[in-house]
Amino acid sequence: MQVVHSFARIAVTAAAFGAMALxxxxxxxxxxxxxGSQNTVTADPPVSRxxxxxxxxxxxxxxxxxxxxxxxxxxxxxxECAGPWEKVVFTADFSVSAGVQYDRTxxxxxxxxxxxxxxxxxxxxxxxxxxHVERDLTDYSALFKSAQTGEVDLGNLVxxxxxxxITGSAxxxxxxxxxxxxxxxxxxxxxxxLPNAAGGAATLSQTTDQLxxxxxxxxxxxxxxxxxxxxxxxxxxFWYTCVPNDVAGELQSCGNTGxxxxxxxxxxxxxxxxxxxxxxxxxGIDPFLWAPLPGVQTLNFVPYRVDLTPFAGLLSxxxxxxxxxxxxxxxxxxxxxxxxxxxxxxxSAHVTGAVTANTIGAGPAPNVVENLQTDSSGDIxxxxxxxxxxxxxxxGYVKTSHGRVDTDVHQNVNFSNAESFIINATSYIQDITQxxxxxxxxxxxxxxxxxxxxxxxxxxxTLDISEVFASDGSLNLQTTATQEFKYDALEPFFAxxxxxxxxxxxxxxxxxxxxxxxxxxxxxxxxxxYLDSRGNEYSCKLAAANSVLTSVSDGCPGQK
Length: 560
Description:
Elements: H1 14-18, E1 55-65, E2 71-75, E3 85-96, E4 105-110, E5 113-119, E6 130-136, E7 148-153, E8 166-176, E9 190-194, E10 202-206, E11 211-215, E12 221-232, H2 245-248, E13 261-266, E14 269-275, E15 304-307, H3 312-315, E16 321-328, E17 331-344, E18 352-358, E19 367-374, E20 380-400, E21 403-423, E22 427-446, E23 449-458, E24 461-469, E25 475-491, E26 494-510, E27 516-532, E28 537-545, E29 548-552
Antiparallel strand pairs: 1-8, 2-7, 3-6, 3-8, 4-5, 4-7, 9-17, 10-17, 11-16, 12-15, 12-17, 13-14, 13-16, 18-20, 19-20, 20-21, 21-22, 22-23, 22-24, 23-25, 24-25, 25-26, 26-27, 27-28, 28-29
């Protein structure tokens, strides 16, 4: 991914930032955030673990990524921990050598199933960042029961200009279920990858492109879910800054509006929606914004789970079925990967059922409003907005060994992107306010029992970008960004809430030839909080200034 300011007149390469020396130090991966450090760090919590010692299987160790050849590894289940497992945790450690390098996309697969997806930190001329990531893979336990090969897709260009070499190691931790109690997690019985092939995530360059796979599933599917990741790249990397095609030229921006959305289908029938999170990578907009605190989930993407349970009866009919993912308004291009999780009725060899209602429709119908004025001198002021409001429900049933089970999934998916502009001879100002909200309600009826699950996702994003030219042609580019990921869940006997927020600001300084001179005013912070009804609580706040970590709150790893 190139470090690009796509909003207007300038392009800044990673080479320019590699020349900007930070403090002369080589950073190793740290267990805890350390005040005074420039190393990449987040306030994200580690995955919670059960008591007891895990069995650890090393997937790969010390692998260097200096080209675009996928790296393969071999996996075998831990013989001393045969399962069932109470918890399975993926861990990985990455570093990049000091020098010049872009941020890169990192994908780890096992048997073509994606088990990690994220992007990398960018180095400085004297800074070699190192970072640690974790993912709870307990739901994927069925994947780890057999020996198979895996693949790491982390393409990285290394030559005389781009010198940063990325190194990575990864492992799986298996926590056995405790004897004498039902400690094993209820996990999927089978997993099916999209794409079901080597080579990493699939490329979707336009709305009509699909990542599609056809599977013949077991005849006793009771529940089904699809974990989806759609990552913006190339022209779409800054999709939240894009505008309608008819004004893209005059606004010096990308097209297809500031709206993107992933669509899920089963056998060509709309089956679900997966909103696209506006991830910003460590080279995005202004790399100093994200040093040492990257954006929300930048290093470790969280998949969006689509409930396909209303289709369980259909999927169990013994016929092949095609599951597909597309991205509405994709404009060359998005990368997409997904995993179908199937839960079976263990006491029945065959279940029957059907989809009884589906009001999703063929696709979104976003509303675009343009309110722009151009005066006699060519100066432009005004705004463009795009909104999408969708309400739908999908219902279905299965006849199982324990009776008929009906599932109704009802969702409101609301999106808005409002961009205001001031463009003249001395300034280019673009302010963006984007909101994505999903309210999801799932009702399950089994006999005389009714269960309800409520989920709310919120993806707020604000970007204020101001380019101001001086009379000598020099330029100041100030960016202020606020990202947030909020998730609330209420289900039988359990409730939880997550809030992950990052604030960043910085001003770049260029001469009249667009050579980078320096930057000023860099400040950033991240606050991550988690709370649930079982008494688990986590709260960590980090702050940084001038690319150095300045404060760590109580509650962060390593603190009180």
